[in-house]
Design a protein that fits this description.
Layout: E1 5-10, E2 17-23, E3 26-34, H1 38-48, E4 56-60, H2 66-76, E5 80-83, H3 86-96, H4 103-116, E6 122-123, H5 132-158, H6 164-169, H7 175-183, H8 187-193, H9 195-206, H10 212-229, H11 240-275, H12 289-299, H13 308-315, E7 319-324, E8 327-333, H14 339-352, H15 357-368, H16 373-394, H17 410-420, H18 425-448, H19 466-469
Parallel strand pairs: 1-4, 4-5
Antiparallel strand pairs: 1-2, 2-3, 5-6, 7-8
Helix pairs in contact: 3-4, 5-11, 5-12, 7-9, 7-11, 8-10, 9-10, 11-12, 12-14, 13-16, 14-16, 15-16
Length: about 475
């Protein structure tokens, strides 16, 4: 479709943007520089001299968050704003100018893109990263991963104290355990504190869940640690005071992240209630409070996609296709979409197969057909996002049904899945073993193609040569 006027903007983050104006693919002017400032934008808008703002199409690449301000400004002034994926624009840039890359060429390419590749453009309909729910669920995911990394480091440090500490504190590190490790990770300090004061501390930090028995267990664990390491004054290889400081640093980080995640959860719940007041996403099987907010926040308005296939492609769960003539090869998934949405959908699909008989039946067919667990879950995640998106577009909640279409409750679905579609654990182990054998064969084939001087796992030939004998 021919556009009257197209403004291609190469967005910069800390420098001036460059714009090129094209009319029906022919360049009107190029290389106009401007900043994201009201005066610069008004001057650029006046230079366009538009009789009708709707005739202008602005093409931008989603460069960090700097493009959001420009897109919103031009949309408020009546222009149509479209986005192009950075990978597609990079491929077209190499085609037109293989050995040169600059901002002027980029802006000129963007201005011509509606004629060169119109199906690759996505119309800007929302605020993207400026949307509160979309941004907040990503922030929560980042904090959860940071806390997991802190827990891993904390595990490694507590291991130096001995296994008895895990038996009392557990491995999930709740608030009471983190409060204790932040103050009394030194076994000498635990023993000096005494059973009575330690009991009062644990009761206050755990809201009464931990009492005298936990205090006694911690004192026993402290004495066992001292018995393992000796006196613990540093002469026997361990300075418990320094170790306690290191553990306290990690525990305080975990406490801070835990409090931040709780505050974010409250904000996410309120934002999701505003974004999906009917609870359509949350009605799907395997979708809880956190997952429903992630799906609603990352998909956004489902009507901004041209079809359900476009939503599936946006998740990156669709396979790569290589077709030529009569041959067609579908390899691994593209992973070209939103990584957080893809990860969340796989988690939800793994839970949905335990509730929805239709998902459980498909999972069973895939596993019987020598699919491994991760591949089967990817297939289920693709079907799950398709159904959720269809419900969002129709404005109707998810209807849980049996394989014959009979409406059922969640409790009935769990019972049906448990009775009909139970997977033998040995089947999954056999598939995993077969895949390991295939990988070993591939590795052996690669090793046989290496050069003779490459290191190998085979024993060296120890027979002397004729030169060595001489």
């Amino acid at each position: 479709m021919t556009m009257a006027l197209t403004l291609g903007i190469d967005v910069a983050v800390r420098a001036e943007h460059q714009a090129t104006l094209a009319r029906d693919g022919a360049t009107v002017w190029r290389g106009r520089k401007f900043w994201t400032r009201p005066a610069d934008l008004e001057r650029l808008w006046a230079d366009l001299d538009l009789p009708d703002p709707a005739e202008l199409t602005v093409v931008v690449e989603p460069t960090r968050n700097a493009w959001i301000v420009l897109a919103e400004w031009f949309r408020r002034h009546g222009a149509r704003v479209v986005m192009v994926p950075t990978t597609q624009s990079a491929d077209l840039r190499k085609y037109y100018s293989k050995h040169t890359k600059n901002d002027r060429i980029d802006s000129e390419l963007l201005a011509r893109l509606p004629l060169l590749h119109p199906e690759g453009l996505r119309e800007y309909s929302g605020q993207g990263p400026a949307d509160s729910l979309r941004r907040l669920v990503k922030q929560r995911s980042t904090m959860v991963k940071r806390r997991v990394a802190v827990f891993a480091r904390l595990d490694a440090l507590v291991e130096l104290l001995g296994p008895a500490w895990y038996a009392v504190l557990g491995s999930n590190y709740g608030i009471a355990a983190l409060e204790f490790l932040a103050r009394y990770a030194d076994p000498h300090a635990v023993i000096r504190l005494g059973r009575a004061r330690l009991t009062r501390f644990l009761i206050a930090r755990s809201r009464g869940a931990w009492r005298d028995d936990h205090a006694a267990g911690l004192i026993t664990a402290a004495r066992e640690t001292l018995a393992l390491w000796g006196t613990g004054d540093g002469s026997d290889g361990m300075d418990f005071a320094e170790l306690a400081e290191d553990i306290a640093h990690e525990a305080e980080q975990a406490l801070f992240l835990t409090r931040q995640i709780r505050q974010i959860d409250e904000r996410v719940a309120n934002l999701y209630a505003d974004a999906d007041p009917a609870g359509i996403v949350a009605s799907a099987p395997g979708v809880g409070a956190v997952i429903s907010a992630v799906i609603a926040g990352r998909i956004g308005d489902p009507h901004r996609f041209t079809s359900l296939a476009a939503i599936r492609a946006y998740t990156g769960l669709v396979p790569k296709v290589n077709q030529s003539g009569v041959s067609k090869v579908e390899s691994s998934i593209t992973k070209a979409g939103d990584p957080l949405l893809r990860e969340t959908l796989c988690t939800a699909a793994d839970q949905a197969r335990r509730v929805d008989p239709q998902f459980a039946a498909k999972y069973q067919r895939l596993m019987v057909g020598d699919r491994h667990h991760e591949s089967a879950i990817c297939h289920l995640a693709t079907h799950l996002v398709t159904r959720i998106a269809a419900c969002m577009r129709a404005g109707q909640p998810y209807a849980l049904r049996d394989v014959d279409g009979t409406p059922i409750t969640e409790a009935e679905g769990r019972a049906i899945v448990k009775a009909r579609y139970k997977i033998d654990p040995r089947r999954r182990e056999n598939v995993r073993y077969q895949r390991m054998r295939e990988r070993r064969k591939q590795a052996a084939g690669q090793e046989s193609q290496e050069s003779r001087c490459a290191p190998t796992a085979q024993p060296a030939n120890t027979k002397p040569t004729s030169r060595q004998v001489a």
